[in-house]
Every structure is written in structure tokens, then in C-alpha cells.
Amino acid sequence: MQSLISNIAIASCYLPVLMIVWKNLRYEKSFIAIAIYWLFSGLINLPNWVSFLQNSAWQNQITLIYNLIDGPLILLFFYFSANGSKRKLILYTIILFILFEMGTIVIAGYNLKSSTIIIGFDTFIALTLCITNITAYLSKLDHSSCENALVFINSSVLFSYGVFIIIYYFSYLGFANSRAENNEVFLIYYISLFLSSLLTCYGLWRYTKKPSEMYEKSYLNY
């Protein structure tokens, strides 16, 4: 059962890319960024499908690399969906986050310890930005098609990172006491992966570009 759920979840990670193609959204940078984010989420799980990648050495390297690019990728989505001073603030955040990654690797080494620190900080930033974005959306009465799409995408990211706290606690911090518990944690991960990617797709599906909205500002502009 877990194998079936994991395969469905991994396949669902590629759906946002297909949604971009189907809806012809290749000029919407924020949507492209989130599609690339989900594409990498699918690629990180390729060892489930590719037999020669299933050895522990390959999986460890893939996990370490992905944890380095996860933060900048999701921050790019927030950057492109923002405007004005908020966009500039997120740009500075991206630069500082990359410097933080480099400093952590220099101090702790390129290993699971530094990866755990980096992905923990990444999760905190992503959750903070999601909450502020959704709060900004709810504070308005009228919303554009772009804003309606982005709030569902932000919700999907919030759900994904929110559930990841469980994975982080049990898997990264080592509180899973048995193999069975570890398997249950990864089952939760795959279910959240599937639901989050579908919620992203729903947000993309809701977006209908009108001529007047081609250059509209998103709700992240204060």
C-alpha cells in the first residue's frame, strides 16, 4: 500500500508542470517558479523508480543537494509573486539564506548535521511567508484571478511545510524509535506531497488571465 501511495504522490509532483503547459502560463514567473519547485520535489524521489539510485550513498547525496536548493527554490516563488518593497525584502532574504547555507556548511561540514540546520531554517521562513501572504489576502475584500490562484498555492506550501515539521521531528532529529515508525512518517510525507501538489494544481486551474490582468500586481504588494 505504501509503495502505491508513494508512486502516486511522486507522479503528482509533475502535474503542476503539465498544468502550466495546458493553461499556457509560461509567462507567469511565480507559477513557473512553483512548478519548478514541484518538479524538483518529484526528482528527489526518483530513487523510488530508478533502481541504480536506490543505494544509500546516492540517496544521501540527493537528499543533501535537494535540501540546499529547496529554500532558494521556494523563495523564488515568493519573490516572483511579490511586488514593491516586499519583493526587495525577499530578494535580500534569498541572498542571506544562501550565505547562511554556505556558512553552515563551512562550520558544520557538508553532511546531515548541516542539512538538518538548513532545512529547519528553510521551513521556518517558508511557513512565515505563507502565513503573512494568506493573512494579506484575507485582509482584502476584492481579489483578482491571480490573487485567488496564489492564495491556494500559498495554502499548498503552508500545508506541505506544516506537515514536514512532523517528518523533521521524527526523521531528521531522530525521534523515530523503530523502522515501523519511520515508515509511518514517510507515509505521512507522501500523502502530504500528493495533497499539496493537487492544491497547487487547483490554484493554477483557477487562474484565468484577462487582458487587464496581464500586468496586475499581486496581493503581496503593500
Characterization of the model:
- The chain has 222 residues and is mainly α.
- It has one domain: Up-down Bundle (Rhopdopsin 7-helix transmembrane proteins), CATH 1.20.1070.
- It has helices at 2-12, 15-23, 29-43, 56-80, 84-108, 112-138, 145-172, 179-206.
- α3 packs antiparallel against α4 (56-80).
- The chain is globular, with a radius of gyration of 18 Å.
- The protein starts with a helix and ends in a 16-residue tail after the last helix.
Compute the number of structural domains.
1
Q: What is the count of DSSP helices, taking H or I runs of 4+ residues?
A: 8
Task: Indicate the low-confidence ranges by residue numbers.
Answer: 211-222
The CATH architecture is Up-down Bundle
Distance between the termini: 47 Å
Which descriptors apply to this entry?
globular, single chain, Rhopdopsin 7-helix transmembrane proteins, 222 residues, disordered C terminus, mainly alpha, 8 helices
Question: What would you say about this model in short?
Answer:
By secondary structure, this protein is mainly alpha-helical. It contains 8 helices and no strands. It has a single domain (2-210), classed as Rhopdopsin 7-helix transmembrane proteins.
